[in-house]
Amino acid sequence: MTSMKERMLAGEPYLAEDPEIAADLSRAAELTERFNASPSADPEARLAALRDLLGEVGEGSWVRPPFHCDYGWQIRLGPRSFVNFNAVFLDVATITIGADVQIGPNAQLLTPTHPVEAGPRRDKWEAAAPITIGDNVWLGGGAIVLAGVTIGENTVVGAGAVVTKDLPANVVAVGNPARVVRRLD
Q1: How far apart are CA 130 and CA 109, in angstroms?
Q2: Is 0.85 topped by the overall pTM?
Q3: What is the pLDDT of residues 82-128, one digit of tens each?
Q4: Domain ranges in the chain?
């Protein structure tokens, strides 16, 4: 029989109240608190806290606190990428962020999904799908990227956009839901 954590990692429905999953949430909450409380005057301590929290932190990358996530170890931040204030990364599934990505303040990357049917939702079942952000992407402030989305390299997502479907490389997308309004050379 598979555990709830194995179901979660496979993208299958699972119950987040499972003790193993709850322990991972607790670990991430403590590490997130440590990162968010780290003094700006000690960038090495802040970076160490971030490396303890996230699955991977690329060379030259930076996250400005406050930052919030579910587990942390499901997040891969590529080299030279930047995440601004108040980011929320719900990493029930993997979140992969490429190199040279810029993420504006109040951005949200949300991998969890919930049943549409009332019964399973009331019973606390959920699932997730990964998010992939390509190299050199810029997510404007307040952008929201939903579960299962891939954004191609060099794409710009406008402030406040809600990305519900994959976006190709080399485009500008805006709105809710996000739609391509321009191709980039």
Answers
A1: 10
A2: yes
A3: 999 999 999 999 999 999 999 999 999 999 999 999 999 999 999 99
A4: 4-183
DSSP string, 115-177: -SSHHHHHTTEEEE--EEE-TT-EEPTT-EEETT-EE-TT-EE-TT-EE-S-B-SSEEEETTT
| Exposure on the CB side of residue 150, measured as CA atoms within 13 A | 5
Taking only Cα atoms into account, the Rg of the chain, rounded to an integer number of angstroms, comes to 17
Burial letters for 61-83: b for 16+ Cβ neighbours within 10 Å, e otherwise?
A: bebebebbbbbbbbbbbbebbbb
Which residues carry out catalysis? Answer: 114
Please state which CATH class domain 4-183 belongs to.
mainly beta
Which residues have CB under 8 Å from 81's CB, separation 6+?
58, 61, 62, 97, 98, 99, 100, 101, 102, 103
